[in-house]
Amino acid sequence: MNKIAQSVRLWFAPRRIRDEGATPDYRFSLANERTFLAWIRTALALIGGGFAVDQFLPELAWGVRAGLALGLLAAGVLCALRAVNHWVRCERAMRRGEDLPVSRFPTLLGIVVAVVAVAMVVVVLFGWEGR
User: Fold this and answer.
1) Distance CA 57, CA 65 (A)
2) CA distance 50 to 40
3) What's the rounded Cα separation, in Å, for the pair 7 and 92?
4) CB of 112 within 8 A of CB of 71?
């Protein structure tokens, strides 16, 4: 079974993680869980922002409004999925006594949010209106 499929299976069967390595100090597992919850809060905020753009900016041109909303919604979905994946990867690394995994995802998410924010600044400054 490939590595990705095995990792995704652990999303739905987290007890299998206990089969690997030694149990880490519970404080580290709880910190990992808090990080997971922070990623989920971020995902919810992005999804809420996407819906807000779509629902509360009807004067915006449809293409602009849809692009901004879909960008935020997609970022929220990716953030939620990445939260689970990151939690599993960190928990496994702690149990194995390995270094915690590194990721480019925070950079990618930051860039997506920055691009959407710059687009929103342009919209606010120039007041693009729907036709």
Assistant:
1) 7
2) 15
3) 10
4) yes
Dihedral in degrees, nearest 10, Cα atoms 118, 120, 123, 128:
130
The label of the residue with tokens 């009807």 reads 58
DSSP string covering 50-118: HHHHHHH-TTS-HHHHHHHHHHHHHHHHHHHHHHHHHHHHHHHHHHHTPPPPP-SHHHHHHHHHHHHHH
Q: What is the spatial distance between Cα 1 and Cα 6, in angstroms, rounded to a whole number? A: 7
The encoded tokens of residue 104 equal 């480019």
Enter the tokens of residue 110.
């930051």
Backbone angles phi, psi at 57, to 5 degrees: -125, 55
Tell me the per-residue pLDDT of 6-27, one tens digit each, with 9 for 90 and over: 778 887 877 788 888 888 898 9
Q: Whole-prediction pTM value?
A: 0.80
Is 50:69 a contact under the CB 8 Å cutoff? yes
